[in-house]
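Hi R.,

Quick one: here's the Thiamine-monophosphate kinase sequence you asked about.
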Amino acid sequence: MLSEFSLIDRYFAQRARQHTRRAALGIGDDCALIAPAAGEMLAVSTDMLVEGRHFFADVDPHALGHKALAVNLSDLAAMGAAPLGFTLACALPKPREDWLAAFSAGLFELADRYDCELIGGDTTAGPLNLCLTVFGSVRQDAALRRDAARDGDDIWVSGTPGDARAGLGVLRGEWQTSGADAAADVAHFRRALEYPEPRVALGLALRGVARAALDLSDGLAGDLRHILERSRLAAAIDVDALPVSPALARLPRAVQLQCALAGGDDYELCFTAARDQREAVEAAAQQAGVRVTRIGTMSALTSPAAAVPAIAWRDAAGAPLDLTLQGFDHFHAD
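And here's the predicted structure, written out as tokens:
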């Protein structure tokens, strides 16, 4: 039977020590020692994934290993930070070797792609819970901060938000796909949900081009408000401009809007940039190999005393749409 320390060594520490380059001191001591390049600052973010809240009990452990790190790398992408390393703390109901082998494989495959080293962590017995802290590096003047948007900025999104929420809906039986493409659509949605792609390359390419940015973890309707609150601005969104995947386009329009605007779990980037940066934004997206779409505009607050800056939802003709949308809330979600 695996002990705590044999588990750590077999499935995590041995692999991590083979790739330690950026940490001055990695796994094996009371603390890791890590420093950014000269002139840069550490970007640090923590995310927790809890069984039953963020993933199903029967999820593929390889997919879970990928997603656990992907959601953290997505935070670095949103800041325009280059990955350096991460820590992993996990509670496990029981140390099953087949589960650990698949989980660590998914984790390290993504870590190797982004040259992000495992530098420490902890394990204990308990309900399945994964907590990762990721470290990145970025110049202070290049960081994409939520408080940096300006009146008149374009609002952009990467990829096709909504696919992950569509996948959750399919798995829950909230709606069904149909037609000749049904099986392919389900596979597409499920991959979007279980294997999100952190937009690290796009975040790096947008440094010096975009102003404010964040990743769409809780849905556009909820997440965009974070930029509005920090930047003290309002926004108008052209709902008809939202990029929709072919699979999502085959679902009813009401489902499309719910998924794309309030679904969450996509980990695409939402960012703002000055109008005169449109060509630069497109060039950055081409460099990163990622689709980006301009979906709206930032504007000054009509009421500076407003507690929550508003989002005006409009169609392509500019007509207002009456949409009641709210992003994902970890304490009030179904």
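Residues 61-79 form the longest helix (19 residues).

Cheers,
M.
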